[in-house]
Every structure is written in C-alpha cells, then in structure tokens.
Amino acid sequence: MDFRLSPEQVLYRDGVRAVCARFPETYWQRVDAERRYPDEFVRALTDGGWLSVLIPTQYGGAGLRIVEACIILEAINASGGNAAACHAQIYTMGALVRYGSEAQKRRYLPEIAAGRLRLQSMAVTEPEAGSDTSRITTYARKDSQGYVVNGQKVFTSRVQHSDLMLLLARTSRVEEVARKTDGMSLFLVDLREAGSSIDMRPIETMINHETNALFITDLHLPPDALVGTEGAGFAQLLEGLNAERILIASQSVGDARWFVDRCVAYAGERVVFGRPIGANQGVQFPIARVYMHARAAGLLRWEAASLFDAGEACGAEANMAKLLASEAAWEAAEVAMTTFGGSGMAVEVGIERKFREARLYLVAPVTNNLVTAYVAEHVLGLPRSYGTGGRT
C-alpha cells in the first residue's frame, strides 16, 4: 500500500495548516484560560468547507472520504490546535448520510455544508449505563404525533454550539427484545425547537471541553425525526463510532507529532552543562521512541480508514488505532514534560495545555481497557472478560 499523500491531499493538509496558522498558541491559551468555545476557529474551518468534507457533492459538500477527514483533524492537532471543538461535525454526519431519508438529507445537509446549520452533538452515554450502551433507559414512546422522549444523558458535548443533536433512545424496553442491543433508535433532534424539554447542565472538567448532563422531559419529536429504521439504532450507531475512533486516532497522532516537534526544537536549543540537552541519550531516546510509536499508530489508522472507505469491516482496526494513537500521544506528552522540565509546567509554554488534552483519549470516547477486551474476545477469540458472568 502507498501511504504517501496524493498531491490533492497535500493541498488539503496545507490548507488546514494555513487556517491554523491564524490561531497561534496565544489564542488557544486565551480560550483555555477563559474556558470558552473557540468560535472564531470553528467559524474559520466552517467557512473553508473543512467540516463538510464527508457530505456528498449533491448536497453541497466536498464528497471526500474518511481518509481526507483524518488528514484534516491530524493537521489541526499537529498545528497546536484542538479539533475536539468541532470534530463531531465531521463524524456525526455519517449516520445522516448513510441512514437518513432523502427528505432528511435534502433538508439538512445543504444547510450544514453551507455553515448555516450546526450538527456538533451526539447524546448516547447515560449515568447508569456508562460504556454498556445496551443499558440505556432514555425512552422514546410512540404516539399519534410522533415520539415523546424522557430520560437522561451525560457527557454530551457542544450542545450549546449545535443546532441539531443525534440522540440514541430506546423505542422498545430491554425486556421486550430478543437481544439487549435491539430496540434502540436514532433521532435527529432540532435543539432550536426543544425549549425547556431539554435541561442542559454543564460539567466542569480538567480541560476546556464543553460537555453537559442532559435531562430530557417530554421532548416531542415528529415522525421524521427518526433516522433509519426504528429499533436498529445501535447497529447504525456502530458504523459512526468506527469513524469516530479513526478520527480520534488521527487527532492523537497529530498531538504526538506536535509534542515531538516541540521536544526536538527545545532539546536542540536548550544548553545545559555546555551542550544541548538533546545530545544526552536520556533525552533523545524517549523522543525517538515516541516518534516511532506515533508513526506505527498512524499506519494502523490509515489501514482502518482505508477499510472504512472501502465499505469493509474495520471495527478491530478502528479500535486498535484509537488505542495505540492515544497511548502514543500520552507517551509523547509525558516525554515533553520531562524534556521541558519545570518550563513544561508554565502555561505560557503551552505544553501543560496539550498535556491535559491528550489525557482525555485514553478513556474517551471509549476506554482503552474496553478496546483491549474487545480485541481479546473478538479478534483473538479469548473468553469474554466482562459483562454477564464475567469478571472485570
């Protein structure tokens, strides 16, 4: 396989880099200190068409593949930015593109592609269910006018900066279905019309990552809010989650590259005891090793993306890429802190911000322990280690 970027892909990468150059480290430090959403950065990406790359051309998008989306998100994080502010606009689109009705696509996709409508949020996780999505209890009761939804969601990000939200809810109780993953459905919620039916309560976290707990009370949805087939929402969600993992892996690869670049520059110019600290193997070896780890994770990410674009099964590759990339990014963050020493703790240097941000992807959007259990059971054929009858 040829992993070199094509001339067109190089243009995409350089175009994103040019946007990021307008938002230097001082911008991200200011946004982080103020705990606010990077509206200016997201608007610049939106105006450039970078967040609508997966929307088919007939609906006003670029009609590109997940591979190109990977290039975009990796370039953002490698430039020192934080793609988490807007990455959902790319991967949440998949459910609507793949399973939405023609009427839904014509109504929403052109508006999203033009930047007049934002689809930045997806509500799946619940406090009592956690990583076991089959245990969600948010329920969409069918009535003569559509559906009435009641329930609670947690860690639902960017709701305040989204016009639409993808919502997973049960349309059949778990005791009514043959398999516990049956009976869940996807809905496209227009947040502008939800009113007081959705109570959004921000959750303060260690990073500037706007996320919320949602309390949903008698939310009325029309019949055409249903995306795809009623009861098949979990299977439809899985395809989107594969895309999410591949793109998160790309962000982590970008973070690792950023840390390595900063380490190389600092270790080459920082002189202690008469020579650059980068001349010491205790400094240079960790940097070189994490560089190799990031390169390896990036290759598995490309394999996962290629399989996804070919319409082939890629669950194992997507999950493994996410794990390896997130671990490489965290390793690079640790190496950067050690390389910079006390200076790495200083906010003005920028390392500590990225250090905090890189830690997120060891546990989100899926914890690496679950990824490891998935590979052990579904790839290697080992006995199930969690769930009914299992041990954690």
Protein model, in words:
By secondary structure, the chain is an alpha+beta fold. It folds into three domains: 7-113, Acyl-CoA dehydrogenase/oxidase, N-terminal domain (Butyryl-Coa Dehydrogenase, subunit A, domain 1, Orthogonal Bundle); 119-231, Beta Barrel (Butyryl-CoA Dehydrogenase, subunit A, domain 2); 235-379, Butyryl-CoA Dehydrogenase, subunit A, domain 3 (Up-down Bundle). It is 47% helix and 15% strand. It has twelve helices and ten strands. It has helices at 7-21, 25-34, 39-47, 66-78, 88-91, 93-99, 102-113, 233-269, 281-309, 315-340, 351-359, 368-379; strands at 119-123, 139-143, 146-157, 164-170, 184-190, 198-203, 211-221, 226-227, 271-272, 275-276. The strands form three sheets. It has a four-stranded mixed β-sheet with strand order 1-4-5-8. Strand 6 (198-203) and strand 7 form a beta hairpin. The longest helix is centred in the middle third of the chain and has 37 residues, at 233-269. The radius of gyration is 21 Å and the shape is globular. Mean pLDDT is 96; it is low at 388-392.
